[in-house]
Amino acid sequence: MGLLDNVKRFFSIRTETTEEHNVKDLQTRYYKTTKDKAMQALEPILVQSGWEIARSEVERGEIVAKMKKGKRKMLVLTIITVKPFKTAIDLSCSTDTSLPTDLGHSQKVVLDMYKKIDKELTYIGSGLGKELL
């Protein structure tokens, strides 16, 4: 990871996790659970953290939540069962600001949410997509 990547992440209003992200903490995380059980566990975590659930679609494995107080932001959680009891959770957070940057706030939100999820679900690892296929 180079200096340019750090600058791009800093001057952004959005943070998204991916399978092969160059920042290990922002790689897709895998948990020992099913999609349905993960969604049932995630909704209370979001509500307790002050998020308002705007939409929850079990069939698609997607939860959209909005934060109205403080900095306005939106969080999208994508939940996919890859193998029985191996479920991937990706997060995407965008901040509503008039500035061209959120000063790393969206990344902090994503990392904080993963910490909360890790306490509720059994964490297997990050960026395991190639190993599981």
SSE run: HEEHEEEEHEH
How many beta-strand segments?
A: 7
CATH homology superfamily name: Fungal kinase associated-1 domain
Low-confidence stretches: none
Determine the number of helices (DSSP H or I, runs of at least 4 residues).
Answer: 4
Indicate the overall shape: globular
Estimate percent helicity. Answer: 25-40%
β-strand amount? 25-35%
- Largest sheet data: 7 strands, antiparallel
Question: According to CATH, what is the class?
Answer: Alpha Beta
Cα separation of the termini? 26 Å
Organism: Halalkalibacter suaedae
Protein name: DUF1499 domain-containing protein
Layout: helices, strands, pairs:
Blueprint: H1 3-10, E1 14-16, E2 29-31, H2 35-48, E3 52-57, E4 62-67, E5 73-83, E6 86-95, H3 105-120, E7 123-126, H4 129-132
Describe this structure in words.
The chain is α+β, with helices and mostly antiparallel strands. The chain has a single domain, classed as Fungal kinase associated-1 domain (TATA-Binding Protein). The protein contains four helices and seven strands; from the N terminus they run H-E-E-H-E-E-E-E-H-E-H. It has helices at about 5-10, 35-50, 105-120, 130, and strands at about 15, 30, 50-55, 60-65, 75-85, 85-95, 125. Strands 1, 2, 3, 4, 5, 6 and 7 form a seven-stranded antiparallel beta sheet that branches. Strand 5 and strand 6 (about 85-95) form a beta hairpin. Helix 2 crosses helix 3. It starts with a helix and ends with a helix.
